[in-house]
Specification:
The complex is a heterodimer. By secondary structure, chain A is mostly helical. Chain A is built from twelve helices and no strands. Helices cover 72% and strands 0% of the residues of chain A. By secondary structure, chain B is an all-alpha fold. In chain B, 78% of the residues lie in helices and 0% in strands. The chains are: A mainly alpha, B mainly alpha.
């Protein structure tokens, strides 16, 4: 035991820091990913600082200024109650992004342990867990979320719970797949031969090596959660009026489609920008975390992806 | 292959059993009483009790589930609490409409993705390839209900070319073929754009993969016509993963139609589930989710079979 324990802390620490630092150095070389990160950071900032920087109160009704097109006073125009679309957009982003983050947290907290256990222990546990995951995955995700939220009651907490339940099995299936392949690696056998217990193998060998696909998958989960939250609110199952929400506001904009196209365009563009920047970031992370895809110089690509 | 198919088909009822149990538990574990919603607040306790007994809702949960499953096994999905109609007859109304919309969306996806994917692969790193990449990126990013609103704004309001609603309506059925088809166009494009993006990207990369194979050079060296080389040698092989993916995506279609059905007032499966969820119409929720899950499972089996059919190297 002493033999197994003694060298590992010394060996592990610099390697981890080194690979992370290398990955961090790779990331900005992916130009789309860098732009994605900046755009996402700006969106997050606008949402987080909404109470400080939003030009108007998002729920303040001013009928004298209703359905005004974009102007100097109202950059993105006003809605049918004279509320400022830009302010509503910024406040709506708070909901969308926090739902996205919490769903990512939920999916990680449940999907990763399930996938690791299933992949590492195999056998009956694996069979049981994966059949359960199969059943979850035969439901169309949005319909499952609608059913869950509809039955639990339209409430933002239930939206998070439902979307987390929808996403966790997807992550579990992926983690299981990666775990199965990593489990057979020589270094895992070596660790076992050195007397490492299952807990140590799972946490410091398996988890570490399946981490990069997990991180990439989590960006997909985040984007999916943002869209799903908007879809649920659009259908009337998420945020309730008068609270601003991207999906809900688009649903209300349907009645003024011809008169006030900015009302539905603004949230649509916001969702698209959000998803786009997350996707680009995910691509960049995928490349940065995969040493085979690293670029040596700025414009020279080592491995060109078909 | 036939043994594999048999094994897969045997698994279907098992997965569906788990699905049905899950739906049952979800409906029963959540708040909301269908009888209360149906009859309203100020109803006599006797009437409510009679209705509960009528729908077996007064029995213990395991018995309710057993009774329901026994009926499902005979092809009877029970009665809707809300509409007091058989779930199967509601299904007979809704399923064809959802299938038609899914088929229209898939047709759009195929018509766009095949030429776009092939041309993008042949003309790599030209403006048409970048256009294709841009299209797929946007297809992934814009949610289908946002796209639907944009399309309505452009084609129905500004240009006034296409109707917004009318799928499954009496006028559409009575007027000629155009009256029948035209309401499908905008929803099908809105619904199928994500699939178009997925399929275009897949076809582009598998075409590029195939084009770099040795047999492509041989075919060209033999002096075959460029069109023969592309269509017979390259496309035929590149289509294998494409067809599989298309089948899988088609299986998804019915389940993801909810928002589109909501916008375009389509009387399909998604809006039926939506209404059933709001009204706690348990038999409809249970029956419809079962059918949607079965459809998805069969689409996946078909996809795997197609894979084996088109690629002789694959043996199950």
């Amino acid at each position: 035991m002493a033999l197994a324990e003694a060298p590992s802390p010394g060996l592990k620490a610099p390697r981890a820091a080194g690979s992370l630092r290398l990955a961090a150095r790779q990331f900005p070389r992916h130009r789309a990913a860098l732009i994605g990160l900046i755009v996402l950071a700006l969106i997050c900032l606008a949402a987080a600082l909404a109470p400080l920087i939003s030009p108007y109160d998002p729920t303040k009704i001013q009928l004298s200024a209703k359905l005004k097109p974009p102007s100097f006073e109202h950059w993105l125009g006003t809605d049918h109650f004279g509320r400022d679309v830009l302010s509503r957009l910024m406040y709506g982003g708070r909901t969308s992004l926090s739902v996205g983050l919490l769903v990512v947290g939920f999916a990680f907290a449940f999907g990763v342990p399930l996938g690791l256990a299933s992949g590492y222990f195999g056998g009956r546990i694996d069979n049981l867990l994966m059949r359960l995951v199969d059943a979850f995955l035969t439901f169309p995700p949005l319909l499952l979320a609608v059913a869950l939220v509809g039955l639990l009651g339209p409430d933002i907490q239930n939206v998070m719970l439902a979307l987390g339940l929808v996403q966790a099995p997807v992550l579990a299936r992926m983690v299981r797949g990666s775990t199965l392949s990593v489990r057979e690696e020589v270094y895992v056998t070596a660790a076992r031969a050195l007397g490492a217990g299952p807990g140590r193998i799972v946490l410091s060998h398996l988890l570490r090596n399946v981490m990069s696909p997990i991180v990439v998958q989590l960006t997909i989960v985040f984007a999916a959660a943002v869209v799903a939250e908007a879809s649920l609110s659009f259908l009337g199952f998420g945020t309730q009026p008068p609270q601003p929400s991207w999906g809900r506001d688009m649903s209300e904009a349907r009645r003024f489609l011809g008169d006030a196209p900015w009302m539905f365009l603004a949230p649509t563009v916001a969702i698209a920008l959000c998803v786009l920047s997350i996707n680009f970031m995910g691509d960049g992370l995928r490349d940065a975390l995969d040493p085979r895809a690293w670029r040596t110089r700025r414009s020279v690509t080592v491995s060109e992806k078909p | 292959m036939w043994r594999y198919l048999g094994r897969r088909l045997v698994q279907v009822p098992l997965v569906l059993l788990v699905v049905s149990l899950m739906t049952f538990l979800i409906t029963r574990a959540t708040p909301g009483d269908p009888v209360q919603i149906m009859l309203g607040m100020n109803t006599s306790p006797d009437a409510a009790a009679a209705m509960r007994a009528d729908f077996n809702l007064d029995k213990p949960l395991p018995e309710q589930y057993a009774l329901w499953i026994a009926k499902v096994a005979t092809g009877d999905l029970g009665r809707s609490i809300r509409l007091n109609d058989r779930v199967t007859s509601l299904l007979a109304e809704r399923l064809p409409i959802s299938l038609q919309l899914a088929a229209a969306a898939m047709l759009f996806a195929l018509c766009v993705s095949i030429p776009l994917g092939v041309i993008a692969a042949l003309r790599r790193n030209t403006w048409i390839d970048y256009l294709c990449t841009g299209y797929t990126v946007m297809g992934f990013a814009v949610p289908n209900f946002g796209l639907a609103l944009i399309l309505i704004y452009v084609f129905s309001i500004k240009l006034d070319w296409l109707p917004i609603t009318g799928i499954g309506s009496a006028e559409a059925a009575a007027g000629g073929w155009w009256a029948y088809i035209s309401p499908f166009i905008v929803p099908a494009i809105a619904l199928g754009t994500l699939q178009t993006a997925i399929l275009t990207r897949l076809l582009r990369s598998s075409m590029i993969d195939v084009l770099s194979q040795d047999y492509m050079r041989t075919a060209r060296a033999k002096g075959l016509l460029p069109s023969t080389v592309v269509i017979v040698h390259a496309l035929k092989n590149a289509m294998i993963p494409f067809i599989t993916m298309a089948a899988v995506q088609f299986g998804y279609m019915i389940g993801i139609q909810v928002t589109i059905e909501y916008i375009f007032a389509v009387p399909g499966m998604g809006s039926a589930v939506l209404n059933a969820v709001v009204n706690r119409d348990f038999p409809v929720i249970q029956g419809f989710t079962l059918v949607i899950a079965a459809f998805f499972l069969f689409a996946n089996i078909v996809a795997d079979m197609l894979y084996a059919l088109f690629d002789p190297r694959i043996r199950y």
